[in-house]
Amino acid sequence: MDCLFCDIASGRLASKKAYEDDDILAFHDINPQAPVHVLVIPKKHVASLLDLAPEDDALVGALVRTARDLAHRLGLSERGFRLVLNCGADAGYSVFHVHLHLIGGRALGWPPG
Ligand code: AMP
Ligand code: ZN
Questions:
Q1: Using one digit for the tens of pLDDT, what is the confidence trace for 38-66?
Q2: Closest-CA residue to 18 (of 69, 75, 70, 72)
Q3: Which domain covers residue 71, as residue numbers?
Q4: Residue 1 pLDDT more than 80?
Q5: Is residue 17 part of a domain?
Q6: Which of 60, 68, 74, 90 is the most exposed place for a label (fewest CB within 10 A)?
Q7: Which CATH number goes with the domain that contains 74?
Q8: How many domains does the chain have?
Q9: Is residue 28 a part of any domain in this protein?
Q10: What is the number of the ligand closest to the CA of 10?
């Protein structure tokens, strides 16, 4: 299967890693939208939020907790940060492997564009 983030998860494609364990990889976004913009992904291929199954609940929890830990490590926990999961065309979902955006380091507008 041709998937950009599977290639990054397996190391076939290079990334600037921020965290890695057996199930999860976090790496800096190639087109950062803020001073900190990290993507946290499951190593397992899940095409989108629409494909998550009940057995993925622990994985989703680990993604969020990993992003929270990274926010702390990258100095964002005092000022704040945002976690974003896009899904579908209206949200601009462009890489079809679930990824949690960790964004921070500047004041973020709300509502998002
Ligand atoms: P989304 O719009 O939620 O699908 O986000 C996809 C994100 O992946 C965008 O923020 C892109 O900048 C990012 N991205 C695409 N290719 C790469 C890559 N090779 N390395 C790091 N980030 C990437
Ligand atoms: Zn994939």
A1: 999 999 999 999 999 999 999 999 999 99
A2: 70
A3: 4-104
A4: no
A5: yes
A6: 90
A7: 3.30.428.10
A8: 1
A9: yes
A10: 2
